[in-house]
Design a protein that fits this description.
By secondary structure, this protein is an alpha/beta fold. The protein contains 14 helices and eight strands.
Length: 297
């Protein structure tokens, strides 16, 4: 049996305290369940929160987390509910849930005001949080943000269909898992063998824990990836500093949407990243990290 066959065998395990004790991060007990997080950098540094995207756990921030810690920020990264090593509560995975998770996590860590750096679906979470809690946010950085109309592949569209989505991700376990993995690898402009070897085991690790597939389907069906321009219009109406970074070869949320974002958020500093897809900070950390650090400093 191949590595992928073993990893895609199904949700066979339950997340518990014993497993999390073997991990480098920590846990916070919030209203809706346990959130797994990691803190880096000096305790007195400016707090920066890294919000991940649709389905990738917090490892997607590995290059950024390391660079921010070395730059002296007090950097927090965490797994959204339903992903990574955070709980998979039986709830609707909508914006309200993810914003509540973030505000309760910040309260648990006594973070009064923070900078938010978000990726993809993390963009709507950051924008909504900043609207609801404006005094708690100093600056906002968006990397290839979601919230714009998308041309989804057929395999993803089928997941929206009740019963059929459950069949694809459930009964056809390996096919459903491969569909998700293929969509994640499409986030790369140039998925080198080294990048794939690093990414794949870390991504599929979460698939063996009960509730991942249910959380993914609920997130899709709750409208989290859907267009909502009011989110960014409200950011543009605020006086907060904003940074926008977008990979020119993004096939997940195409680069053309950067024009609309800049219309809605006229104060945004903008950097287009050549030869990068949906995760430019991961593909081109040597170029993107200095842009982020300079903006936040």
């Amino acid at each position: 049996m191949s590595l992928l066959d073993r990893l895609f065998a199904g949700e066979r395990f339950v997340l518990d305290a014993r497993l999390r004790e073997t991990l480098p991060g920590q846990t916070a007990w919030l209203t809706d369940g346990v959130t797994y997080y990691e803190l880096g950098g000096p305790p007195g540094g400016v707090p920066v929160v890294l919000i991940p995207g649709f389905s990738v756990p917090n490892f997607i921030w590995d290059p950024t987390f390391t660079a921010f810690s070395a730059a002296g920020f007090r950097v927090l990264r965490y797994d959204l509910f339903g992903r990574g090593y955070s709980d998979r509560p039986r709830l609707r995975y909508d914006r309200a849930l993810f914003v509540r998770q973030l505000v309760e996590l910040l309260d648990a860590l006594s973070f009064k005001q923070v900078d938010l750096v978000s990726l993809s679906m993390g963009g709507p979470i950051a924008a909504e949080f900043a609207f609801r809690f404006p005094k708690r946010v100093r600056k906002l950085a968006f990397i290839d943000p979601a919230g714009f109309a998308l041309d989804l592949p057929l395999a993803v569209k089928l997941l929206y269909v009740p019963v059929l989505g459950e069949i694809i991700l459930g009964l056809l376990g390996r096919f459903g898992a491969q569909t998700l993995l293929d969509s994640m690898l499409a986030d790369f402009y140039n998925p080198t063998p080294e990048a794939v070897d690093y990414f794949v085991p870390r991504y599929v690790e979460q698939m063996k824990f009960h509730g991942f597939k249910r959380a993914i389907l609920s997130t899709l069906r709750s409208g989290m990836p859907d267009e909502d321009l009011d989110l960014y219009r409200r950011v543009g109406e605020s006086e907060k500093g904003v940074l926008l970074i977008w990979g020119k070869e993004d096939r997940t949320i195409p680069f053309r949407h950067s024009d609309k974002f800049r219309q809605l958020v006229p104060q945004a500093q903008f950097h287009a990243i050549d030869q990068a897809g949906h995760i430019p900070h991961f593909e081109k950390p040597g170029f993107v990290n200095p842009l982020l650090i300079d903006f936040l400093q």
